[in-house]
Design a protein that fits this description.
666 residues, mainly alpha, two-stranded antiparallel ribbon, two-stranded antiparallel sheet, elongated
Length: 666
């Protein structure tokens, strides 16, 4: 419980400061209740439309109840809805797919199709392929980018020869070879996932639905087969009607052996001993069984786990569109598995998935930006329209911040971790949350739209980054060994990630300064001084947090690895932020860097921060080399390019700036 102390200390230090700043704004513009009401109403409308609006499933069955059933997938207990969403996102890049009839299937519907309608599921276009040479290899249309499993299967003939020609080192792959391997990996994922319950369409000699029907009477098959085998061993002639059961057993056991592997398959059968899996209501690592493993075990114990027949009933009920049988099967599975998991936590995760708080939050942040832009473009200033739009955006932002906070808290409860940062995905979400909070504080102090602008831009961009990172798999994956410490997650990781936030905010303010000063005439000296003050303050904030976070990281490293500092790339990146923030402050104090120099140094500081946040993970070396993605590597280079372009604009001679008056004041 030591991590609680760190949060208490942080609250004791931060809350009085925040309260003072909140109660003593620089500007005296009053907040009006009517605009607060408008902002919260707009928040409710947006959150309902993009988060709370019920999903329309193409069936009258209780799919939502099925979505809350607990399963184990990729080493973690989760609702089956999460397994479906994660898998479809890996295959298609989205959590929905269009059926041949034009109706939209959600991930849970798609999973049910693979379970109960495997032939129809094979016709759904769930594979995304962009590279033209990969399309040509599989003889696919170059006009489309989404394809079905049935379309890809013929192209797998002779693919072994192509695989054999790949370089031994994946680092030597061409773009075409990388995309080919990505496609083959997706096909393997689909095969493994679809064989969680039956062999799908890959065994033409076995009807998957007939095999599911066999699960319902598996004990009878085993009993009769055992009797036939015993009679044969004793030299007796078995009943010909019973002999077929032994043949059935011999034909399906190899199928079950393939289905037994837990790799990329959904394990639905809980362990035999509840006490081995549930410890004071928390998740443990006790493995669940796949359907194949449970069926093979039944052949040894002569007793099939009831979950197997329940899932068989569920699959057949969905296929036959039988609401009563489907509901009964779901309730039976819930009863059987309730002793092995925290049902509240499973339900919370399913609700979290369905409400999509971070996606809804990104829409809300975008709406805040649009309101601010509209306030700047408004020509009806005398009627108070710009102020009305600004205040509405502010209160809408408060709603978005509360939603963002709720999403972070839900993730912490689901993962049973006391810190909001556990991987790259959550770091992006957390940075957006911190930027939103700081933006609200700045708007309360200055009331000049810049706080809402900061929160909207950084919040929206970081949640978009998180959405991209979420496409690489489960966002609540098992903890990396380097992060597997509750106390240090609540101290070092949170502090160092908070240090990134003000650096990016300062860079955003620098961008506003450059663009408004260079291209507009209405940028006043007072507004420029206000931005410079905010940049100076946020960089000081970044220096303090980054220094403390780096020091705490060294203490953690000393406890974990026996050394305080090892020149790991992540350690170097954190140190670079501290040194650069200190350089900016000293250059400003000494008068070496004036307005434009401060902006250039700040923009370069955002490049260093991005390197520490993402770049060090892309190197593939060091103790922190996790989270590599091709997309992350590309967008990091794009970000650097944009910052270099802005630095170039900042260095344009003063005589070309349209708002030259801002350089007459320090």
């Amino acid at each position: 419980m030591g991590w609680i102390i760190s949060y208490i200390i942080l609250a004791i230090i931060a809350l009085p400061i925040l309260y003072y700043l909140w109660r003593h704004p620089v500007a005296q513009k009053p907040w009006r209740p009517i605009y607060a009401l408008a902002g919260f109403i707009l928040f409710g409308v947006l959150f309902y439309a993009f988060g709370l609006k019920p999903d329309n499933h193409p069936t009258d069955l209780d799919v939502e109840a099925f979505a809350e059933l607990p399963v184990q997938y990729e080493g973690r207990l989760m609702p089956v809805d999460t397994a479906a969403r994660t898998s479809l996102r890996l295959l298609r890049g989205r959590e929905t797919v269009e059926a041949p009839s034009g109706e939209r299937l959600f991930a849970i519907d798609w999973l049910l199709w693979t379970m109960a309608r495997p032939a129809d599921a094979a016709e759904l276009r769930v594979f995304r392929i962009d590279h033209p040479e990969v399309k040509s290899l599989f003889d696919l249309s170059e006009e489309r980018k989404y394809f079905s499993y049935a379309e890809l299967v013929p192209g797998l003939e002779g693919i072994d020869k192509v695989i054999g020609e790949l370089p031994p080192d994946p680092n030597d792959y061409s773009v075409y070879q990388q995309q080919l391997v990505k496609t083959l990996t997706a096909i393997e994922l689909y095969n493994n996932l679809s064989s969680s319950f039956h062999p799908g369409i890959n065994r033409p000699d076995i009807n998957p639905i007939d095999l599911v029907k066999l699960y319902q009477n598996w004990d009878d098959v085993l009993r009769v087969a055992a009797r036939v085998l015993s009679a044969s061993n004793s030299g007796e002639s078995p009943d010909p009607r019973d002999a077929r059961f032994l043949q059935i057993l011999r034909s399906v056991v190899p199928v079950f052996q393939v289905m037994a592997s837990p790799r990329e398959r959904i394990a639905v059968v809980p362990p035999a001993d509840p006490e081995a899996d549930l410890d004071h209501g928390t998740y443990s690592d006790a493995p669940w069984q796949t359907m194949g493993a449970a069926l093979l075990e039944a052949a040894q114990t002569a007793r099939t786990h009831p979950t197997v027949s329940d899932y068989a009933d569920l699959i057949l009920a969905y296929r036959d569109s039988d609401p009563e049988a489907f509901r009964a099967s779901v309730e039976s599975i819930q009863t059987t598995t309730s002793d092995f998991v925290s049902t509240r936590r499973i339900a919370l995760e399913e609700g979290f998935n369905r409400s999509a708080p971070f996606f809804s939050g990104s829409i809300i942040y975008l709406a805040c930006l649009l309101l601010i832009f509209a306030s700047w473009l408004s020509i009806n200033e005398k009627a108070g329209l710009p102020e009305a739009l600004r205040q509405t955006a502010f209160f809408l932002l408060i709603g978005g911040f509360l939603l963002h906070s709720g999403g972070l808290m839900a993730r912490m409860i689901i993962m049973e971790r006391p810190a909001p940062v556990t991987n790259l995905y959550s770091s992006a979400v957390f940075i957006g949350w911190a930027a939103c909070g700081l933006g609200l504080l700045l708007e309360q102090i200055y009331r000049n739209s810049f706080g809402v602008l900061i929160a909207g831009v950084v919040g929206f961009c970081t949640l978009i980054i998180a959405h991209g990172l979420g496409g690489s798999g489960d966002t609540m994956e098992a903890m990396r060994a380097v992060l597997d410490s509750n106390f240090w997650l609540a101290t070092h990781v949170v502090t160092i990630t908070l240090g990134y936030t003000p650096m990016f905010i300062a860079a955003l303010l620098a961008i506003v300064f450059i663009l408004r000063g260079l291209f507009t005439r209405g940028f006043s000296a007072a507004a420029s001084r206000s931005i410079i003050q905010m940049i100076y303050g946020t960089i000081g904030f970044a220096l303090i947090l980054s220094f403390i976070g780096t020091f705490l990281g060294g203490v953690w490293a000393d406890q974990s690895w026996g050394r305080f500092w090892g020149w790991d790339p992540k350690e170097n990146g954190a140190l670079m932020i501290v040194l650069w923030a200190a350089l900016i402050l000293h250059a400003r104090i000494a008068g070496v860097a004036r307005e434009r120099g401060l902006m250039v140094l700040t923009l370069f500081g955002s490049m260093i921060t991005a390197w520490s946040w993402f770049g060090t993970n892309q190197l593939g070396i060091g103790l922190h080399s996790y989270g590599f993605t091709d997309a992350g590597h590309f967008w990091l280079l794009v970000f650097w390019g944009s910052q270099l372009l802005l630095i170039g604009l900042a260095l344009v001679p003063v005589r070309f700036w349209r708002s030259q008056q801002i350089f007459n004041h320090s």
